[in-house]
Amino acid sequence: MCGIIGIVGRTGVHVNQLVYDGLTVLQHRGQDAAGIMTEFEGQFRLRKSNGLVSDIFYTRHMQRLQGNIGIGHVRYPTAGSSSRAEAQPFYVNSPYGLGLAHNGNLTNAAELRSQLSDKHHRHMNTSSDSELLLNMLAVELSTNATNLSIDGSPHMDIETVFGAVKNLNQRVTGSYACVSMISGYGLLAFRDPHGIRPLVFGVRETDGGSEWVFASESVAITALGFDVVRDVKPGEAIFISSSGHMFNRQCSEPVEPSPCIFEHVYFARPDSVIDGISVYHARLNQGNVLAKRILEQWSDHDIDAVIPVPDSGRIAALQMAEVLGVPYREGFVKNRYVGRTFIMPGQALREKSVRRKLNAIGHEFAGKNILLVDDSIVRGTTSAQIIDMARDVGAKKVYFASAAPPVRYPNVYGIDMPAVNEFIANGKSIDEINTIIGSDRLFYQSLEDLIEATQIGQNPPKRFDTSCFNGEYVTGDIDAAYLRKLDDSRNDSAKRNSSDDDEIIDMHNDSA
Q: Which positions are annotated as active-site residues?
């Protein structure tokens, strides 16, 4: 999972600070690496490296990132690699100069790599599928570029761009939400035909004309003082010229939109609206329906208090406490300077990290029967450690509720989940999972209830990507061989062997 942003400002107004501020709002989507690219006087300016946004960009970098068009990216890796060379945005110099930032995961990456090398003679410097996507866009633009002028005139046949995206959609499978800069012309944003990964755009009117922003979540748009226009539609491409004029086109055959439901379970900020769905209200609904199911199964429950696992379990827990008729309490204090545990390679490291990440407030547990609420359970490592912590500070009984169903299948569309045999729910019943994590009783949301709770708003999607819960892959191209290869790249051994010491070109420089 990553976060992307693209901005077209007024002519002569630098957007570097806006891009930076937008990336800080999207920081929750990736803490592994970040990058910003702008264009100024015909040259791309680039700064990217590993780390948090606030740690990467200094005054000297910001002073160089001039230009009224810019794109940015925050990353966490989806196959264990943390190489600086794979930080985004990427760029190529032909045709015209292209930069791209991508959120998602291509499922036919191996096929694309062969095509690009054997047929189009394009060199890949990393293992990133985002670099593949950029080169596919470059190939299609070159093929369609008969009407594109690079002689300094402002004329460009917009059909060139939309034709390139249409052809790309026919050749690429998987999930992709992208912002791309075409040197001298403007900013291109597009989304895969299924709309798996989110992309929203907004505008603000100024005396100097319209300014535009594209971002993974609506909160990055409103935080910058822009008005949200709408989501980029699945399969749609939108082009904003350097002068601020907008063009859009549907560039794929119609398929059923299938946005990722995990955005509303865990990844997105609660103050975002994605595909017309308020993340906050979706999580309230998820807590509401789960609590009602608990009451159906256990009307005479003995729960004394509902306590969330911070932070993403909090909203569901609030609603659950109300429906169950018991007090809501904060029982854990989170150390926000420890990264996410489920993407850390190695069981021992994860278990050590959980104890550093959370500290229990003993008074809220002592002598009580507690219901702990989390957004989901993946490996179960964190859940077991948290239950132990609750017992250590005096909880009499510890019940556990997951606002999501059991995670039993790999996610192939950009979420860095572990190998299947590391899922606690793999081949196990709920009673067996309950025994392993050490809870007194365990409750999971059903998939049907999760979908119903999330299908809110005026025109909600009829279908979501729920593949990690039911193994149904919306792109229709995932087989057992693909999943075996994915499993090999995601197990702890593979992640321990991953290193950023093998890069040849140093992308730590602040310009390109």
A: 2
Averaged pLDDT of the chain: 90
Three-state SS for 294-325 is HHHHCCCCCCCEEEECCCCCHHHHHHHHHHHC
Position 13 pLDDT exceeds 50: yes
Distance CA 144, CA 159 (A): 8
Q: pTM for this structure?
A: 0.92
Answer with the residue of higher pLDDT: 506 or 108.
Answer: 108
Map out the domains of the chain with their CATH numbers. Answer: 2-255 (3.60.20.10), 278-465 (3.40.50.2020)
The label of the residue with tokens 């209830």 reads 449
Q: State mean pLDDT over 234-245.
A: 95
Q: Note whether 512 and 65 are within 8 A (CB).
A: no
SS (H, E, C) 150-193: CCCCCCECHHHHHHHHHHHHHHCCEEEEEEEEECCCEEEEEECC
How far apart are alpha carbons 136 and 108 in whole angstroms?
12
Q: Where are the beta strands (DSSP E) in 164-275?
A: 174-182, 186-191, 200-206, 209-215, 227-231, 236-241, 246-250, 273-274
Tokens of 338: 């420890």
**pLDDT tens column, 260-288:** 999 999 999 999 999 999 999 999 999 99
How far is CA 481 from each of CA 115, 478, 484, 486, 496, rounded to the nearest angstrom?
A: 20, 8, 5, 9, 23
- The tens digit of pLDDT for each residue in 23-56 reads 999 999 999 999 999 999 999 999 999 999 999 9
> What local confidence, expressed as pLDDT, does residue 85 receive?
86
Largest separation between any pair of C-alpha atoms in the chain: 77
Contacts of 118 (CB under 8 A, 6+ apart): none
Work out the average pLDDT over 428-442.
97
To the nearest 10°, the Cα dihedral for 359, 360, 362, 363?
Answer: 120
Residue 434 in contact with residue 384, Cβ under 8 Å?
no
d(CA 435, CA 449) in angstroms, rounded, equals 24
